């Protein structure tokens, strides 16, 4: 059955790894399937989870019919000791409450942003060792088996709350190409409960301290101002983000990494 497949991986755009994974995927998947590729930083499971949540949970009118998302960020950090035969974190297959299907390497926070929206989740029959490049050698076949509902692919039904950790609060969740810092602070969180448009706040990210203005959107501040406002991600409970109109909030804060802690103080 034709579907639209979104691939999320921690390879740089245009990297050879992307070419090999894409080629292996197209060799096994239904003809005329739509594809789109999104890159995140190397080993960045927070950004992987943030992107997965945004794409999987978006309104039905804003996503393709029969959407399937494959997310692969496998830093192999679930065990500190040396890994035998290139073993890595396992794959989980799930169906969300909105019908979107996902196949995800369960590493770090890769599934954290969809945890509460999963209807069913399974461990799957796929090789977890034997190749340094599982994304090319093993995972395309696993995705094909999931799409074809092959017998024996799904192994054990698991509780998402038991096998997926919650996402980290009050950190940078994703940095876009404009330098906007999308945070994991969202509408209703206590840290922003008392903020109103026009308020001034002190913000510390890493060792950098800056002053920002609370805003309601990206363009209701003066050119060059650093602002903090609800962003375009997060569906009904928007994630807030730092942006600098006409500039880069990331540069303003010294180019912090995803996962950096955010400390906010209301200026009296």
Provide an overview of this structure.
With 268 residues, the protein is of the alpha/beta class. It folds into 2 domains: 4-163, 3-Layer(aba) Sandwich (Rossmann fold), CATH 3.40.50.10790; 172-266, Beta Barrel (Elongation Factor Tu (Ef-tu), domain 3), CATH 2.40.30. It has 6 helices and 14 strands. The chain has helices at 16-28, 45-57, 134-137, 139-147, 160-163, 249-252, and strands at 4-9, 34-39, 67-72, 91-96, 101-105, 118-124, 154-157, 172-175, 181-186, 200-205, 208-214, 226-230, 239-244, 262-266. The strands form 2 sheets. It has a 7-stranded mixed beta sheet, with helices on both faces. The chain has a 7-stranded mixed beta sheet with strand order 8-9-13-12-11-10-14. A hairpin with a 2-residue loop joins strand 10 and strand 11. Helix 1 runs parallel beside helix 4. The protein is elongated. Residues 78-88 have low confidence and may be disordered.
Q: From the structure provided, what is the oligomeric state, counting identical versus distinct chains?
A: single chain
Task: List the uncertain runs.
Answer: 78-88
Q: What pattern of helices and strands is seen along the backbone?
A: EHEHEEEEHHEHEEEEEEHE
Here the CATH topology of the largest domain equals: Rossmann fold
- Please give the CATH class of the largest domain: Alpha Beta
Mean pLDDT: 90
The total count of strands amounts to 14
How would you write the strand order of the largest sheet? 2-1-3-5-4-6-7
Shape: elongated
Specify the biggest β-sheet.
7 strands, mixed
CATH architecture identity of the largest domain:
3-Layer(aba) Sandwich
Number of helices: 6
Main structural class: alpha/beta
In CATH, the homologous superfamily of the largest domain goes by the name S-adenosyl-l-methionine hydroxide adenosyltransferase, N-terminal
Radius of gyration, CA atoms, in whole angstroms: 20 Å
Report the helical percentage. 10-25%
Q: β content, as a range?
A: 25-35%
Q: How many individual domains?
A: 2
Ends: how far apart?
Answer: 59 Å
């Amino acid at each position: 059955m034709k579907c639209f497949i979104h691939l999320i991986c921690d390879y740089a755009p245009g990297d050879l790894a992307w070419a090999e994974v894409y080629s292996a995927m197209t060799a096994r998947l239904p003809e005329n399937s739509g594809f789109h590729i999104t890159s995140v930083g190397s080993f960045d499971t927070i950004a992987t989870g943030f992107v997965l949540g945004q794409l999987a949970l978006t309104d039905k009118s804003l996503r393709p019919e029969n959407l399937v998302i494959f997310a692969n960020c496998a830093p192999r950090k679930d065990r500190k000791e040396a890994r035998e035969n290139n073993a890595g974190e396992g794959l989980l297959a799930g169906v969300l409450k909105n019908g979107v299907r996902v196949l995800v390497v369960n590493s770090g926070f890769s599934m954290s942003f969809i945890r509460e929206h999963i209807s069913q989740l399974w461990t799957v029959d796929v090789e977890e060792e034997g190749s340094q490049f599982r994304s090319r050698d093993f995972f395309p076949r696993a995705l094909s088996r999931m799409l074809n509902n092959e017998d024996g692919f799904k192994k054990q039904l698991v509780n998402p709350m038991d096998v997926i950790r919650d996402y980290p609060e009050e950190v940078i969740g994703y940095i876009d190409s404009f330098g906007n810092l999308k945070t994991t602070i969202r509408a209703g969180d206590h840290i922003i409960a008392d903020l109103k448009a026009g308020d001034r706040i002190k913000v510390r990210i890493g060792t950098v301290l800056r002053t920002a203005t609370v805003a309601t959107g990206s363009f209701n501040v003066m050119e060059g101002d650093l602002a903090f406002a609800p962003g375009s991600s997060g569906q009904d409970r928007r994630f807030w983000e730092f942006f600098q109109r006409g500039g880069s909030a990331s540069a303003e804060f010294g180019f912090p990494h995803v996962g950096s802690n955010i400390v906010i103080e209301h200026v009296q």
